Amino acid sequence: MKKLFICCLFMVVSQYGLLTAQVKFSGMTQSSIYTWENFDEAQLIDYYQHINARVSLESYRDLYVKTYFRFGRTGDPAEWNERVYNAYLNFLSPCRKWDARLGRQFVYSGVMNGTVDGIMLNMRPIKHLLVKLLAGMEAPVDRALELTPWSDGNVLGAFAGYKVVEAFNFAASYVQKTRSDDIYWQLAGASFSGNVFNNLYYQAQYEHNLKTSQYQAMRYRLNYFLAKWNIFAEYNSQRPRIYEDSFFQIFEQTAFNQIRSGVGYQAGNYNVGLHDVYTMYEKDESTNQIHATISSSYGMIGLLYQSGYGGDNTGIYGSVRYDVLKNLTVYVRSSYYQYERQTTAISEDATAVSGGVTYKLSASLQVKAEIQERINTYYDNDVRGLFRIRYAFNN
Amino acid sequence: MKRVFVITLVTFICVGLYLFAGAGDSEKYELIFSHQLHVVNNEVECASCHGTAESSQAGTDNLLPDMESCGACHDVEDDENCGMCHSDIEEPLEVVRIEDYSQKFSHQLHIKSEFECSSCHSGIEKKVTPSAPVSLPAMSDCMNCHSGKSASVECAACHLPEDNLKPTSHTINFAHAHSDLAKSGTDAMASGMACADCHRQDFCQDCHEGENLDETTHPLNYEFIHALDAQGKEKDCSACHQDRQFCNACHSDYQVYPHNHQQPGWAVSGGGGLHKTEAQNDLESCISCHEQNAEETCQPCHQQ
After folding, report:
1. Considering only A92-101, A303-312, B160-169, B287-296, which range has the smallest mean pLDDT?
2. For an interface test with A, which of B209, B266, B277 has the most A Cβ atoms less than 10 Å from its Cβ?
3. Which residues contact A300 (CB under 8 A, 6 or more apart)?
4. pLDDT at residue B26 above 50?
5. Is B190–A201 a contact, with Cβ atoms under 8 angstroms apart?
6. How is chain B split into domains, by residue range?
7. How close does chain B come to A35, measured CA to CA in Å?
8. Do B166 and A142 touch (CB under 8 A)?
9. The pTM is what?
10. Which ipTM value was assigned to this complex?
């Protein structure tokens, strides 16, 4: 499989001149060098090569191949490895009533979520109705270029979403994951959402675990947008996700309940936000986190305060970016956190600063250099470096 | 818990029924004006009232007609006729002007390219009131042409460098809320924008599956403070970190062990001790390390 993929890639690249006459070839390549120190203070250098490509016929663009992957020499000790994020063939029907995608793809529809090696059909039989059908194998967790055998992990799923009116959308979905002929993960979900009065957006989402006959997660959310203001509130409840063969399956799976609320205001080019996350646990414990930010296109500053069962944390962070020249941007990011994990009664702090420059040599070629430094309980001075070249072609 | 769920569900059903009853379009302006009456019934050209559109080169230009323009057909000097256009003749209000549309947008350029008004302002001819929503095109409408084929897809084609491009939907909670929005299939939230208007799917994967070399997904030092996000449930770690060895790889290699395990009464036979409460509150934190060695550490007391 891996050899086949590399051969195909080589053929495409070597025949580039010939192919470009009839083929539309677009995408991006990105080379990154990342230097860091291990615990023994030995300097290590990681190399990453990302490639993003889309290939279609000039005369027939409804059929295209798309891939996004990277290979690199990383780790300690450094080893060559690859991650294939997506690699698929996509076909759009002439009237756009349906399309099909075959290969590795990132799926996010209702309770179907994750990277799958398989086929996805998207159908629009009537206006405002979207139906999706999915069948495939779970992609390897490390996104290696290999296929999981069907019996070791397959996924079947379906999604239907219907926009009744602007103010009312409904979606239902189902997913099951099977291993060794046993369904080990089975969820059904429903969601309602819509835009009311052009200002109020509501969303209700419910996920039911058919294996445990309990709800897995539910979220109810309201966002209110009025001129330069936005206000939101959310109730969120979720149970832990436990592997099907885990010993921990014997325990009762209790949910945490959470209320999130906040307000934002756009003052000219500045966004101001205040956010509160209050989490309640089974045994009368709770955590509260307050988060405040001011941001603009030139940077941002944020304050964080957390207390309770989840631990205590006080932090400040920010970033500044400035266009020195039309093509040259400098930026600096920094953060400081003083934190105490639950039950330790030991206060620790962590400081970080990073800065860099990006230079656009042309509309398609960009170079970036960045220095990162961390100071914390374990490192007095951990300096890292990133150098990156990004080239976009035929975009 | 069940009661909270039922109350919330009933609330949503009531809101839905209210909307179905057509009560949603209640925001009204003081002005009485029907595009349908003018454009459809009397075949008035758009340019008759919005004559300055043809030469307008900035989205901030005021292209709404003033009362003088209405005077071309209506006798605006006749005090007896005020009520024809104003619902409150004692205190008539000016229609809200559009001042914050994209500075770089040129009506002139689009009209010269032979676009009809209805290409971007579809449906406005059927409006019988000047009530919200104002019929400005959403960015997804622009993207129908600005796809890189017939018109540029670059941000700078329509936006100035100093423009604040962050959509209003991207609130401070958006990092948490965006997945539900993306997964709901409804795409648009505020301003009629869809995720794909600005982001390609690779953008999702860079965060969800990428290397985080430039610290965009998690900030520097996150390995030291992540425990507070994990136990505080601010982030859902398992949304991305699905490898069951993921937590243990660092915790075991670097011997990062929880301090609370040394507390007196952490694990006692009979009632269980302190660890029982911890597990009931946050079983995921136990799993993050003991998934690998539950047979040795948990099973001797917890018989399956």
Report:
1. B160-169
2. B209
3. A293, A294, A318, A319
4. no
5. yes
6. 29-69+95-137, 243-304
7. 10
8. no
9. 0.80
10. 0.83
